[in-house]
Amino acid sequence: MRTPTRRALPSRLTRDVSRRLSAHAATGGLVVVLLVLTVFSVVTAVANADAAREVEQSAAVAEWSDQAEEGLDRQEELADELVLDPDQEVRSAYDAATAATRNALVQMGTAAGEHEGRFARSLVLHERYGAAVEDLLAAVWLDPAGAEEYEDTLVDPHHEALETLVKEEARQHLAAADTALESMARSQRLLLVATPLLFGVGLVLVGLFAVVLTRSRRATLAQAEENRRQALHDGLTGLPNRTLLAERATAALATTDGDPGPLALMLIDLDRFKEINDTLGHAYGDAVLRAVATRLQDTVRATDTVARLGGDEFAILLPAVAGAEAALELAARAQAAMEGSIEVDGVFLDVDASIGIALADGHGSDVDGLLQNADIAMYVAKERGLGVCVYDDALNDHSPERLGLLGDLRRAIDAGELVLHFQPKVAMPGSAVSGVEALVRWQHPQRGMIPPASFIPLAERTPLIRPLTRYVLSAALEQCARWRAAGRTLTVAVNISARNLLDERFVDDVTELLVRWQVPAGCLELELTESAIMADPDRAQEILTRLADVGITLSIDDFGAGYTSLAHLKGLPVHQLKIDRTFVAEMAADHRDADIVRSIVELGHNLGLTTVAEGIEDQVTWDRLSDLGCDVAQGYFMCRPLPADQLERWFDSVSAPAPA
Known about the structure:
Elements: H1 2-84, H2 88-112, H3 118-142, H4 144-198, H5 203-232, H6 242-254, E1 264-271, H7 273-280, H8 282-299, E2 305-310, E3 313-318, H9 324-337, E4 342-344, E5 347-349, E6 352-359, H10 367-384, E7 388-390, H11 400-415, E8 418-427, E9 433-444, E10 448-450, H12 456-460, H13 465-485, E11 491-495, H14 498-501, H15 506-517, E12 524-529, H16 530-535, H17 537-550, E13 553-559, H18 566-571, E14 576-579, H19 581-586, H20 591-606, E15 610-614, H21 619-628, E16 632-634, H22 644-653
């Protein structure tokens, strides 16, 4: 009996010990599993948090990088405008763009967590670029012919270096974000594989950890996707932004194997949108933008992309259109969609739009070219009230041919190639010559005689209009002085543009030239159109008042074809109304034109103004104007514009110059 007893005790003890060891082992194993799981979970959570921070940081860097690139492009664009038009408004815009670019670079460095290295270098490059631009602006006036070379060799390298550095910074951070996400994905896969091995009893707990970690991973990936979506979409309207539009346009162009194919880009700018913001506030403006976005999306085809580029500017990418006519039809549909009033908090608002269209077949083979050409067409549509305009090379004032003509014009002013012709003005109902109008012509050494319509509109868009106007004024007053010395007392009229009325130095230039040529102010007439006055009525009022105070005669040219209101007219210090030639030319055949001319003559006399009719080409028109009481006549019927020496012979050929 003892032997079995001795054998039984060890067996139970062994079993108890075995159970205890198993329990301890199980407990220890569970503890180890829990510790391993805890450590693994902590490590994974930290890695996920780091990955999330990396993604958020990369998104912030990418956003500020985009703003830095946009600011740099805007700075370059305004620098180009300053080269052509160094006025204060453009200068202020350039300074603002410079400050915005620098701020974006600073914010980009802050988001990246860098305060030295590439960040510091980007600020240095930006300062060098700004200094190079300032040197370029100074060089333009000293050596216009060499400005382009200076820009290519000393300005563009700084711009390209800075742009490359900004893009590289964004690329590296995006790569770091991708690496972090990939690392997190590997951790998740390891967790899913290790869970069955580490857990038996603790399977539920491990599963819970797996669920938590999986949710965390999904949340991180979802946040990353949301960050990417926000980086490619407009926050207000939800439409694709400029970056996504460029990506889709580039992809559409690339699918044609080098041939741009039937692709078009429409640029849409809302008219009078600024009035809504200024009058009702940005909340109303934002509501209008969202409504416009919805209407445009409802208008386009499924394959088209509607994007918001910023402000009140939208774009529509048409990856496949059957030529300009089809694009115009789609643009008409877009305009029709915006015709209805938009209700915001009980207020009904109306918006119109100007649309520019650029086609890939000839209007640009890359995204930047299409955007630029569509932008040019859009501004032409806005300026001319066309609504929709398809880009054409003739619309581009910056084409090589027109830029070459501007360069020649600058040289022509210095070389004295511009000549003046004079057309007499005859007092009615008699035949005495009361004055002449100076008309500029360009005797180009290679192109021959160039009419003013071919070069004056170009000059009016650049600072060149100031030296051109000064040249014409000086030549006209010099000839007036010669006539006065020869006993011919005549007034001389010179046309001025809207840009002259915005020039603070214009009045001083005129008075200086009057003194130089010793011509009384009363012998000078300045003619300006209604549109020039209405461009900035308050500024025009100030300049015209100063000119009138000097004693200069002021005349509104082409009256009746513009938009001068009677309220503005009665307050302007003008002396003459020059009736638009389109009414005068047809008044003998069209009674409505005759009625318009009669009304203008009566209006002028009631306001105490002299009335001048230009474009008289026959005796019937002369007689009708004389019967209406018009004061002064001008036209081919009396004499066509002639050089000064030929005009003097015309004076001498008639004892009392009168209609032929």
